[in-house]
Specification:
- The structure is a single chain.
- By secondary structure, the protein is an alpha/beta fold.
- The chain has 13 helices and 17 strands.
- The protein has helices spanning 3-13, 46-49, 58-68, 81-92, 105-119, 137-141, 146-149, 166-172, 196-209, 279-292, 295-312, 337-345, 369-384, and strands spanning 25-29, 32-35, 40-43, 99-102, 124-128, 159-162, 177-182, 185-186, 192-193, 212-216, 240-243, 254-258, 318-324, 327-332, 349-350, 352-355, 358-361.
- The strands form four sheets. Strands 4-12-11-10-7-5-6 form a seven-stranded mixed β-sheet, sandwiched between helices. Strands 1-2-3-15 form a four-stranded mixed β-sheet.
- Helix 3 (58-68) packs antiparallel against helix 10 (279-292) and helix 4 runs parallel beside helix 10.
Length: 385
C-alpha cells in the first residue's frame, strides 16, 4: 500500500485528532527507524519517551515472544506471575508501598487523584502552571492549559492551578487539600525543571496539611534523567509516583506506585481496569525495568546528557539548553515547528517542537556516541538551513 493510499484511508476512516507528518514507518531497531521507501531515520524522540531502550530491544522482544505464546490475557480476578513480580520490582525500586496497574499515564494520574480523594474525601487537587498530566477528564482538569481545557468544559471541580513558586503553593495548600500533583520535570510544555526548593516546600506543606504529594514521573521516570526515578536526584520523597511511557519498553502500561502511607487506601471495587497489568505487557515491563535499572546504563545517561547539553548550546540559533540527563530542550531565537519539519523530512532526525521556539530531545538511553554526534550534525544542518 502506498503512502498516498494510506493517507486517503486515514482521512476517510480515522478521527483527525493528530497532525501527522507524511511518513509511514515500517521497521525499527535501536535508535533507527525505516520508512516504507527504505529511508533510515535517527529517532531522538523515542515515541515521546516510550521506546527509551530503543526500538525492539532484544530483551523486551524475547520476553514478549515467550509470554505471548503462553498466556495473553485472563482478568484481574485471577493472579498472573508477571504482574505480581512487576509490582514487587517497582515497589522495591522506589517507595516501598504497593502498585496499581493501568494502561497509560493519564490513567495512572486518574488513579492517583482517586486515591488521594479517598484518603481525604472531598479535598482539592493543587497543580502548577506548565503542567501536563493527561487528556482524560480528571487528568485534563489537572492540566492548566486553556487550549486543551476550554473545548471540553465544564471540567472536574476542585482543581487549583497556581504558579510554580513557593509563595503560590503556600497560599494554595491548606487543610482542604487532598493532593498536590507535580512533574519534577515538566515535559510536554518544554522540559522545565521544578526546583528542589519548590519540591521540598511542597513536601513540607503536604505534611502540615495532611495532603498527598504525588510526582508524575510518566515522562521523566524510568532512567530518563540518569537515575531510575527523577525524585532520587532530590532529597524529597513523595507519597506516590505515576509511571507509564517507557515502563513497557514500547508496549502500553501505566502504574501508580505508592509509599506505605497510601498503600492500603483502595479496597476491592474502588478502582479497576480490564486490561491493566496483563501478562504480556507486564513481561515486557519486567524486561525493560531490568535493563533500565543497570547502574552502568544510568551512568551512561548522565554522561550522554552532559555531552549533549554542552554541544547543543553551540548550535546555530540555540540561545539556551535545559533539562536533566537525556530529557532536554533547546530554546531558539527563531520559530521551531518549520525547523522540525525539515529536520524530520530532510535530515531524517526525529525530534519535536513543544512550543514556538522550543525543540525537545528524548534520545534512547543507550544511544551510542556516534549516534549522539550524528544527531548534532543533522540538527545543526537543519537549524542552519
Amino acid at each position: 500500500m502506498t503512502l498516498t493510499t494510506l493517507q486517503e484511508i486515514d482521512r476517510d476512516s480515522v478521527i483527525a485528532s493528530y497532525a501527522r507528518f507524511p511518513v509511514e514507518f515500517v521497521r525499527g531497531e535501536g535508535s533507527r527507524l525505516w520508512d516504507e521507501e527504505g529511508n533510515e531515520y535517527l529517532d531522538f524522540l523515542c515515541g515521546i519517551s516510550v521506546t527509551s531502550l530503543g526500538h525492539c530491544h532484544p530483551r523486551v522482544v524475547a520476553a514478549v515472544r515467550e509470554q505471548v505464546g503462553q498466556l495473553m490475557h485472563t482478568s484481574n480476578l485471577f493472579y498472573t506471575e508477571p504482574a505480581v513480580r512487576l509490582a514487587e520490582r517497582l515497589s522495591k525500586s522506589s517507595l516501598g508501598g504497593k502498585v496499581y496497574f493501568c494502561n497509560s499515564g493519564a490513567e495512572a494520574n486518574e488513579a492517583a487523584i482517586k486515591l488521594a480523594r479517598k484518603a481525604k474525601p472531598g479535598g482539592d487537587v493543587v497543580v502548577v502552571h506548565g503542567a501536563f498530566h493527561g487528556r482524560t477528564y480528571g487528568a485534563l482538569s489537572a492540566t492548566p492549559q486553556e487550549s486543551k481545557q476550554a473545548p471540553f468544559a465544564p471540567l472536574v471541580p476542585g482543581f487549583k492551578a497556581v504558579a510554580p513558586t513557593t509563595e503560590a503553593l503556600s497560599a494554595a495548600i491548606d487543610e482542604r487539600t487532598a493532593l498536590v500533583l507535580l512533574e519534577p520535570i515538566q515535559g510536554e510544555t518544554g522540559v522545565h525543571v521544578l526546583s528542589e526548593g519548590l519540591l521540598r516546600h511542597a513536601r513540607r506543606a503536604c505534611d502540615a496539611s495532611g495532603a498527598a504529594l504525588v510526582f508524575d514521573e510518566i515522562q521523566c521516570g524510568m532512567g530518563r534523567t540518569g537515575t531510575l526515578w527523577a525524585y532520587e536526584q532530590t532529597d524529597v520523597v513523595p507519597d506516590a509516583i505515576t509511571s507509564a511511557k517507557a515502563l513497557g519498553g514500547g508496549l502500553p502500561i501505566g502504574a501508580l506506585i505508592t509509599g506505605p502511607r497510601l498503600a492500603d487506601v483502595f479496597v476491592p471495587g474502588d478502582h479497576g481496569s480490564t486490561f491493566a497489568g496483563g501478562p504480556v505487557v507486564a513481561a515486557a515491563a519486567l524486561a525493560a525495568l531490568e535493563v533500565t535499572s543497570d547502574a552502568a546504563l544510568l551512568a551512561r545517561v548522565r554522561q550522554a546528557g552532559a555531552f549533549l547539553q554542552a554541544r547543543l548550546g553551540e548550535l546555530p540559533h540555540v540561545i539556551s539548553v535545559r533539562g536533566v540527563g537525556l530529557m532536554l530542550a533547546c530554546e531558539l531565537d527563531s520559530s521551531a515547528p518549520e525547523t522540525m519539519s525539515r529536520a524530520l523530512l530532510e535530515e531524517r532526525l526525529i525530534v519535536n517542537a513543544t512550543g514556538p521556539t522550543t525543540i525537545r530531545l528524548l534520545p534512547p538511553l543507550n544511544a551510542s556516541d556516534e549516534e549522539l554526534k550524528d544527531s548534532l550534525a543533522r540538527l545543526a544542518r537543519a537549524l542552519a538551513g
